[in-house]
Specification:
The protein is an alpha+beta fold and 325 residues long. It has a single domain, classed as Sandwich (Jelly Rolls). The protein is 24% helix and 27% strand. The protein is built from seven helices and 16 strands. The strands form three sheets. Strands 2, 3, 4, 5, 6, 7, 9, 12 and 14 form a nine-stranded mixed sheet that branches. Strands 1-8-13-10-11 form a five-stranded antiparallel sheet, with no helix packed on it. Strand 2, helix 1 (38-48) and strand 3 (51-55) form a beta-alpha-beta unit. The longest helix is centred in the middle third of the chain and has 28 residues, at 128-155. It is globular. It starts with 14 loop residues before the first strand and ends in a 14-residue tail after the last helix.
């Protein structure tokens, strides 16, 4: 999509052509986590797209709705009250600025560290109700992530069911939770363009599990470079393959490039669990996935080394490029 001229209302934020009905992804892979065929379906989706929609995941609607409601309540507070939970360096409340390297988006967010299956005690959450909703949701979605990663291992033909999931359940695993709010960008209504909510990027971790309200905006890049819009479904999760998982599978699973286009009329709220390994975890292709004589496509690195490189980059950078052999 072509970046258009800016307007004062969205100064410094790139503008994109507004999505139209023809942009929607008609080939979306949908996986029923309760189905016996889920492992093969997950592996196939990760190989073809690095992305899929997950249904029958077992997380109660009340758990999802409670967090969404509390998040909306927080983001509706006066700006001065929200600012007391920031700035995000990297954790806490942030607005428009994404990271420390100049990336901008039409959003505000809470970025939080996860310790085991709940928020780290170091996270300053502005209300007890929000904290309770976050911890209930995080415990539930983490279980989903573990089940998905166990299914990935089975779909890849790996005998050890925890070959992947064990990296996010191990002590010291680096897990992060993010709540994003994309306010409606009324200034661009009817102009044929939309503000970039979150610029194009891949996720550096192993896996990302996203849930949003009923407002669309998420887009993924297909392997031919075409951007397609993901139809919203507030009852489902959307799972992304991250850079580290691409390396662990020696490129068999694809880390998906994605972005969010802000809506001019409706707000979008999304909640994302990012499952990462311990900082000292070596990230290299699993031996079980290397055929006879097959070499790694990547130089060895630890998660700590890759995370540092990712945080020092811009969103749209090819973060894995420097680790290719």
């Amino acid at each position: 999509m072509v970046v258009l001229a800016s307007t004062p209302a969205v100064d410094h934020i790139p503008l994109l052509r507004s999505p139209d009905p023809g942009d929607y992804f008609s080939g979306m892979p949908v996986v029923d986590l309760s189905s016996p065929g889920a492992p093969r379906a997950i592996a196939d989706a990760c190989e073809r797209f690095g992305f899929f929609k997950l249904v029958n995941h077992g997380v109660p609607a009340d758990t999802m709705d409670r967090l969404e409601s509390e998040a909306v309540r927080f983001f509706s507070l006066p700006q001065a009250d929200k600012d007391r939970s920031g700035p995000a360096y990297p954790f806490g409340y942030g607005s428009k600025r994404i990271g420390l390297n100049g990336d901008m988006g039409w959003l505000e967010y809470l970025l939080l560290a996860v310790d085991s299956a709940s928020l780290s005690g170091a996270c300053a959450v502005p209300s007890c109700a929000l904290l309770a909703a976050l911890n209930e949701y995080i415990a539930a979605v983490r279980k989903v992530a573990v089940r998905v990663m166990e299914a990935m291992a089975e779909g890849l033909g790996i005998a050890a069911v925890d070959a992947l999931s064990g990296m996010v359940t191990a002590e010291g695993s680096d897990q992060v939770f993010r709540v994003n709010h994309y306010p409606p960008c009324h200034a661009l209504q009817g102009l044929g363009c939309s503000a970039t909510g979150f610029g194009e990027h891949t996720d550096p971790q192993l896996i990302s599990v996203l849930r949003s309200n009923g407002t669309s905006g998420l887009q993924i890049a297909l392997q031919n470079g075409q951007w397609v819009s993901v139809p919203s479904d507030r009852d489902a999760f959307f799972v992304n393959v991250g850079d580290s998982l691409q390396v662990l599978t020696n490129g068999r699973f694809k880390s998906v490039k994605h972005r969010v286009v802000a809506n001019s009329l409706k707000s979008r709220v999304s909640m994302i669990y990012f499952g990462g390994p311990a900082m000292t975890q070596r990230i290299a292709p699993l031996p079980q996935l290397l055929g006879a004589g097959e070499q790694s496509l990547y130089k060895d690195f630890t998660w700590g080394e890759y995370k540092k490189a990712a945080y020092n980059s811009r969103l749209g950078d090819n973060r894995l490029a420097q680790f290719h052999r």
